[in-house]
Design a protein that fits this description.
- This protein is an alpha/beta fold.
- The protein folds into 4 domains: 140 residues, no CATH class; 138 residues, Muramoyl-pentapeptide Carboxypeptidase, domain 1 (Orthogonal Bundle), CATH 1.10.101; 200 residues, TIM Barrel, CATH 3.20.20; 226 residues, no CATH class.
- The protein is built from 27 helices and 8 strands.
- The protein has an 8-stranded mixed barrel, surrounded by 5 helices.
- Helix 8 packs antiparallel against helix 10.
- The protein starts with a helix and ends with a helix.
Length: 741
Amino acid sequence: MVDAMVLEAQRFVNSRYGSVIGMTVTEDGSTGWPTMYALTRALQHELGIAVLSDNFGPTTLGKIGEIYGKFDETTLPAGDLVRILQSALYCKGYDGGGIDGTYNARVQAAVLKLNQDMGVSTTYPGHSIWPKVCKGLFNMDAYVPVNNGSNVIRAAQQWLNGRYVRRRDFYIIPCDGHNSRDVAKSMLYAIQYELGMADGVANGVFGPGTKAGLREHTVAAGSSDVWVRLFSAAMALNLRPVTFTGSFDTNLATAVRDFQGFVKLPVTGQGDFSTWASLLVSYGDQDRQGEACDGVTKITPARAQTLKNAGIKYVGRYLLNPSTTSLPEKEIQPGELQTIADNGLRCFPIYQTYGRDAEGFTYASGSADGYAAVNAAERHGFKTGSRIFFAVDFDAYDYEITDNVLPYFKGVEDAMANSGSPYMIGVYGPRNVCIRVSDAGHATASFVSDMSSGFSGNYGYPLPANWAYDQIVTRTLGTGDGSINLDVNIASGRDIGQNSFNAPRIDGPDTRFDLGWYTLMHSSISSYMQSIGFADEDGGRIFTHTECLDTVLSLDEEITDLSLRYNMRKALIQTSTYWEMRHYDLLDQAADHAVAYYHTGVGGGVIPLRDTSTGIAQISGDVGIRAWNYCITKGYAEGPTLDPAKDADIWTMWQQVNGDNKFAVSTVALIHLWDAGGKPGGNNPPGGETVMRTMNLQYTQSEIFEILRRYQGWGAEAEEHATKRMALYQIFEKYNGLSRS
């Protein structure tokens, strides 16, 4: 919705300052950070600051005090500086009195209301804009309830502002009725000030001094002081049903008992240190003993005894390890689950390959990870009904959760459903990630990464209602053979893992496909391909889903032999072949005619083309020659080498990959070997392709991705297609695994 006065403010800052502040803003009548940044820069320019910045920092704050002391009609002459303040008031939703350059009665009334909304009208009576008020005016914080903000929280926010705004490092926080990073940090500053810490000592960090002080300030029934105010504010900010009060009454005691039970603290009804800690920082009291743990180290009998001695019941272990060089015991090791069960412990599985930035989270990668997790869980022996926690191991901002994380979990959810829903889905990550993924219906329980207290997704968010494990501290337990480094977790009981397991599936060589699995595999691949936009019979493509799958399976004997010969998973050959055949369309068909016309002169009606990708696996003559030459040189294959510079040799190879399906799938396998060898002579990115580990059946997820990506080439499209093909690979691998078991 266009606000006429915000639009006027945008036009003013663009016309008056666009040439001097290094930016202009979109004139759309909608307040946003760009507009506030432009006004901040304009203010800095008027204050004589040479280096302009989006940040309203100490220099800007200091200049206001140094030059003016405060802004009002007694300190400001009419002019552009007043127009900047009037524009900021309009952008904040207050009446700026017209953008006429005068600090008039309407401006004075607006500032008086602003100070009241901020909670600082007692500290700053009247209608002057003091430096810290100005800083609050030039940001996007709201000082009235928004988005169903809590009046209780708003009262606490206003009280904090009014009580502490004169302290050096305390800045005006929003009064919008919601917790946030700034609000949570202001609570720590407030506590430190009440503990007697001086400016410059108080730092908003939950450190040793703050912990020691809080141990001396238990609040309980009958308490009535500023500490009860702070405690009730902390309860409100954690969305507990309390009033903002200075008296510890029975209602507050009841709410405290409920909170303590929820976070698994001793239920005392008092605001003791552990309760303070759980309210103020995500990890809470790190001296607590947890009943759960997770780690990257194999659980041996000696380590299992260490865990039992420490009161551990539940152990989180990883289904896969994406690396071949680091953390060699990260993935569940052979015999480990039996050791866990034999020692009376229970195991909950975690799926994480990388997941450390938003870029890796898409619907397609979620689908691939969902199928991969099912395969890995079944391979290790987890029974139906276990919950797999999928990791989001980075500080995802709210927009990244919307744009990346939620689509990823939808992919996981669809893959799980397409697999017959053998396992439940959990989410590991910061509080906001867990809350939003669970609220979207994609996860049934949360494993909260609360050790990362500085994450924006933990700061100012409550513990998720469906939390199962709360990760609070890293410790080393035991000695000698029983020593183990792990993350300690508080357990809620919502997830208890498993204490008995199926026999693990041995990942031996591939065998011929068991046609008894055909119907299920046909359906699984169909469902996945439809989820990424490929109807079973797509009018824009030549071959249907059934034709592509049946073609691949008709070559199963050849593909199985290639797998055994090259120590290569059949799924690599099947995936590349099916994917390319499924994409074959009318443009590809026309290109084939153009190549035939170039080399034979037969046909016409098209522009001749020397070479193009062709056949069921879409292999060009050039690529086929280079892959065969490489493999012949390495001893993987036999035959004459060809010269990709010669038309006759291009035509020879092109005809074979175009017309001989067995030759085509053989060439797919050789291309994969060539890919692993760094694709010498191929169309490679700047710097070339690295030489990968020798092809083997235990390729990691990252190695499989690289092979599939290199088959297509390099760049954004190849990366995108490889991500989508990873899910297809996992489906083929699932049914190949069932066939060889």
